[in-house]
Design a protein that fits this description.
heterodimer, A: 804 residues, 4 domains, six-stranded antiparallel beta sheet, 24 strands, B: 233 residues, Rossmann fold, six-stranded mixed beta sheet, 10 strands, 36% helix, globular, disordered C terminus, transmembrane transporter activity (chain A), ABC3_permease_C (chain A), cell membrane (chain A)
């Protein structure tokens, strides 16, 4: 019997290959989307899941009076909590970032990243598998160090690492522990070393990550209440007293609330910006992607059902004959279900192949290392696929098997009006979603283009940034490099400043003129910096080599700062005070000699900050902020020039460190990388959603037009022209498109306006996308439905006039 | 009005070739009411389709009101059809989603008749057929006989030169069937040219001439004396 089923199925498939293709394609895309998103979700959710302490370990975070949430804690909190709150069993303090450096192993320097500094009880909180040595011995002295198995192999090969001495940051360490990390965790360091002594601190300096382990059964809520009292006692009362204000006033103005985040929830659910050195998951994106992929599956299923029913009517006769020959209804249902299950199994397999093909790019794009070979997940998805296929299989099957054999044999197929409304809604929804993505894509494109083409106020072409890694002698090395590098014919200039383009500010301070005080960025620079970067001076002059006071008291301010201080009209010569100083320069009575044109250095998401500029030599300590130098090179032989710089750098400045030159333009482009990513995701989603919607449209057009063939035949007999018939058939689809386009306007406007508000420098909401989108949708409807409708006008009149 | 000579229509599938009309010749004069009879597969429906310009013959000539149409393409046939021929089908072929009025109005729309004129003519014809009180109903709310009356009204509304009826009583009970035949007879009496395909020799007796087909050829022709037939009944 199964053989007969398949025979009929394959022969039918040959006739209806286009339907089968559309069915399988839609479902493949749906499954593939769901699979990728589930893989991504699974990966994100796997963080800290294998940590046996996941139920008891919490990170302490702080809500500041400004509403910001800081992921770091003060060093004094841990010991205080432990002493005053009985539920706190122990605490662990570590840096909130990884360091890197040159580790001396057997006399050789090896550049190593992923170094974590913390307290000795690391393994109590992150009990990684210890493959050599023990977690206990690590705790014994602060010079004991733990390294990962991989690094141990890299350092010592087959030799045991235990007891070996390594050296970095001017400290000697003895390896006592080699560990292996299974799964994903808040920290996954290659090296774990200890603070020289227990870090001290006061109640205002939030510098490290603090974890607490609560006794079993303690609720975070209880802790939160108690911690409030601790803060009140140690921070609020003394500070309020100091400032002579009431504790209530202090709390309102400067108050800090500490609360806990369970370690297992941090990756996806932290309210702060920071989820540890391994990064933060994008929960919002996951939710959006999951809802979209479920929507995609539903849409593909609806399309599948529509198309199956449409093609089923063509097979009504087969049903009639089979029923007459005595086949039971149940058996019929089984047959059609099997046919459709076969199609969805094919779609499922294809989606596996598709995901396998797409994963490398997805991994690259998301900075992930996800593999499709996750059997738990795959078996879950197989189950989903089976359920989906049984559902989409049985609905058309029941529809088909309901045909009454006598009527079918006579040629009467009943026309079901059931669900037409629901199908129209579904189609409208598809148009709405497609339209939203289309509009969104255009707007995102416009904004990203705007950012890429905006006049940034500087010119980063052909300027390479080179980073220092070592602490010592940076300014001296810079001056030497400046002298030597410009001797190369393809190097035009060498310069430096402290405020890295595309990065944050190295320092900021109060900057005041008379009684106006503005929090302002300070940017130390070399004389030629503004010239090399092509930044204009709009008033006064730049800092000059040959004027001695330019390296002492003379400063430049940018336009923003000038207007903020209220001296935009006549800034030159004004005496201003900086909030910082040093033994060499008290920072008071600085003189403004020039105004720098506002230029973007922190990306277009951020406003141009008030900034003042001084020479490196104005404050000795400022030179500690010199971490990058800029080299302007000629466009010819770039590779050769870079190699020359690298050679020089490695021989004369830093040995053993990686040399990572970075073009200023590229560095700046990183500030909108996130949005370029969104642009790409939107583009892909737009294409997929539109494609699937068109499949749905195709399916629905097929179905409704087939149901209306008799009507077409009648109209044609009565003399309707092709144009009139096509209009009749397309009309209802156009109506749905238009309604969807109208609903689209406020929906898209709301979401895209929200998105645009991310940017300080943004385009105005454009009108064009709202016009283009309906036009594109209508054109697509005309094409897809039009083709179907045109074929319908070629209907065999005689056939449809004779039989209903 | 209709002169057909040596008409041939062959249907081909991949393996079988069926000759539906085999050098058939026929003439129908203006004002005649002709019945075409014959067993299943004798070619009578094919003949009606060709006469109605729904289909084209393979060879032979077909003179419709002085125009040779055998070699007309689809577009030419369609434009001639909509102006000159009205159809009545066995299964009525009304559009379920349109009201009686709208169904009858349809051919006028396709013939570019003005809206006010359409309204007048539809109302007039519905009145004449005796179905005006049902103008706002949908086909499925009517009895079979009423539906067929609507179909006849639709066929008549353009004042066609020719009315083609394909088993017009096939789906009706004998009472309703009789009504429809009376209606056609009345139309004939007022001068309409009607060609009707039928299985029913009873229905055929309403017409003025009966042509019998077999294997795609005319095997007999018979003139009817209406009065006699009606008396027999």
């Amino acid at each position: 019997m199964i053989q007969t089923w398949f025979k009929i199925f394959f022969r039918n498939s040959k006739k209806n290959w286009l339907n089968i293709l559309v069915n399988i394609l839609g479902l493949t895309l749906g499954f593939a989307g769901l699979l990728i998103v589930l893989l991504y979700l699974n990966d994100e959710q796997s963080y800290n899941k294998t940590n046996p302490n996941k139920e008891d370990v919490y990170r302490v975070v702080h809500k500041m009076a400004s509403g910001d949430i800081w992921s770091t804690s003060t060093n004094i909190e841990g010991p205080t909590y432990k002493e005053e709150i009985p539920e706190v069993e122990s605490f662990y303090l570590c840096n909130s970032w990884y360091s890197d450096g040159l580790i001396k192993v057997k006399g050789k320097d090896i550049f190593t990243q992923g170094i974590l500094q913390g307290e000795p009880n690391f393994f109590d909180f992150f009990p990684f598998d210890v493959v050599e040595g023990s977690a206990e011995s690590f705790k014994k002295t602060r010079n004991n160090i733990a390294i990962s198995e991989k690094l141990a192999k890299q350092f010592f090969g087959k030799e045991s690492a235990i007891g070996k001495t390594i050296n970095f940051y001017k400290r000697d360490f003895i390896i006592t522990t080699v560990y292996k990390i299974e799964g994903k965790h808040y920290v996954m360091p290659k090296v774990v070393f200890q603070y020289k002594k227990q870090p001290e601190g006061h109640w205002g300096n939030f510098s490290n990550n603090l974890f607490v382990k609560l006794s079993k059964g303690t609720e975070a809520k209880t802790f939160n209440e108690k911690v409030k009292d601790v803060w009140h006692k140690h921070s609020v009362l003394p500070s309020a007293k100091n400032m002579s204000i009431t504790p209530e006033e202090f709390t309102q103005k400067y108050g800090t609330t500490a609360y806990l985040e369970k370690i297992g929830d941090i990756r996806l659910h932290t309210k702060s910006n920071d989820a540890g050195p391994e990064g933060k998951g994008n929960y919002q994106l996951i939710v959006i992607l999951i809802s979209l992929s479920i929507l995609l599956i539903i849409i593909s299923c609806v399309n599948f059902i529509n198309l199956s029913i449409a093609s089923a009517t063509q097979r009504a006769k087969e049903v009639g004959v089979k029923k007459t020959l005595g086949l039971s209804k149940a058996s019929l249902v089984r047959q059609y279900t099997l046919e459709i299950v076969t199609q969805s199994i094919v779609a499922f397999l294809l989606s596996l192949i598709l995901v396998e093909l797409v994963l490398p790019s997805f991994n690259d794009f998301m900075k992930k290392d996800i593999s499709i070979l996750q059997f738990g997940l795959l078996s879950q998805l197989t189950l989903v696929a089976i359920v989906v296929s049984v559902v989409i299989g049985s609905i058309p099957a029941f529809y088909l098997s309901r045909f009454k054999s006598v009527e079918v044999l006579k040629g009467n197929i009943s026309r079901s009006k059931q669900g037409i409304f629901a199908r129209n809604i579904m189609l409208g929804l598809q148009f709405l979603i497609s339209g939203f993505f289309l509009t969104g894509s255009i707007i995102i494109n416009k904004q990203v283009n705007y950012m890429m083409n905006k006049d940034l106020g500087f010119n980063g072409d052909q300027i390479v940034m080179i980073s220092f890694n070592k602490f010592d002698n940076r300014y001296k090395n810079y001056l030497l490099a400046k002298q030597e590098l410009v001797k190369h014919p393809n190097i035009e200039a060498v310069t430096s400043n402290s405020f890295i383009i595309g990065g944050g500010s190295a320092s900021s301070t109060n900057f005041s003129y008379k009684d106006v005080s503005i929090q302002s960025n300070s940017n130390a620079l070399d004389h030629n910096y503004l010239d090399v970067m092509n930044v204009d001076i709009v008033a006064g002059r730049g800092l000059q080599d040959d004027i001695a006071s330019d390296t002492i008291k003379n400063v430049l301010i940018n336009e923003t700062l000038a207007s903020a201080l209220g001296i935009a009209d006549n800034p030159i010569g004004k005496k201003v005070d900086a909030g910082f100083g040093g033994p060499d320069n008290d920072g008071k009575n600085l003189q403004v000699v020039g105004v720098v044109k506002d230029h973007h250095t922190r990306g277009l998401v951020n406003k141009i900050p008030p900034t003042f500029y001084m020479h490196w030599n104005s404050f000795d300590w400022m030179r500690g902020n010199l971490w990058k130098i800029q080299v302007k090179i000629k466009p010819n032989n770039i590779q050769e020039t870079l190699e020359f710089i690298e050679d020089y750098w490695k021989q004369n400045v830093e040995q053993g460190y990686p040399f990572n030159p970075e073009f200023v333009d590229k560095r700046f482009a990183k500030t909108y990388k996130k949005y370029e990513k969104q642009q790409t995701i939107f583009f892909i989603l737009t294409s997929v959603v539109i494609l699937v919607s068109l499949l749905g449209l195709f399916a629905l057009a097929t179905l409704t037009i087939q149901q209306r063939l008799k009507e077409v035949a009648i109209r044609k007999t009565l003399g309707a022209s092709i144009k009139e018939i096509m209009y009749q058939l397309i009309k209802s689809f156009l109506k749905i498109t238009l309604i969807a386009s109208v609903i689209l306007i406020p929906v898209a406007y709301y979401f895209m306006q929200n998105w645009l508000e991310n940017f300080t420098y943004r385009i105005e909401m454009p009108l064009l996308p709202y016009i283009i989108t309906p036009i594109v949708l209508i054109v697509l409807v005309f094409i897809v439905v039009g083709i179907k409708a045109y074929y319908a006008t070629k209907v065999d009149l005689i056939k449809y006039l004779k039989f209903e | 009005m209709i002169k057909i000579n040596d008409l041939v229509k062959v249907y081909r599938t991949e393996e079988v070739e069926t000759t539906a009309l085999n050098k058939l010749s026929l003439e129908v004069k203006e004002g005649e009411f002709v019945s075409i009879m014959g067993a299943s597969g004798c070619g009578k429906s094919t003949l009606l389709n060709i006469i109605g310009l729904l289909d084209a013959p393979n060879s032979g000539s077909y003179d419709f009101d002085g125009i040779e149409v055998a070699n007309f393409n689809e577009k030419q046939r369609a434009s001639l059809r909509k102006a000159n021929i009205g159809f009545v089908f066995q299964n009525f072929n009304l559009i379920d989603e349109l009201t009686v009025f709208e169904n009858v109005e349809l051919p006028l729309i396709y013939n570019n008749v003005k809206s006010s004129e359409r309204k007048r003519r539809v109302n007039e014809i519905l009145e004449r057929i005796g179905i005006a009180h049902r103008a706002k109903h949908y086909p499925l709310q009517l009895s079979g006989g009423q539906q067929q009356r609507v179909a006849v009204a639709r066929a008549l509304v353009t004042n066609p030169k020719l009315i083609l009826a394909d088993e017009p009583t096939g789906n009706l009970d004998s009472k309703s069937g009789n009504d429809v035949m009376e209606l056609l007879t009345e139309l004939h009496a007022t001068g309409a040219t009607i060609i009707m395909v039928t299985h029913s020799s009873y229905d055929a007796k309403f017409s003025s001439r009966i042509i019998t087909l077999k294997d795609g050829e005319v095997v007999s022709e018979k003139q009817n004396e209406h009065k006699v037939d009606l008396l027999v009944q």
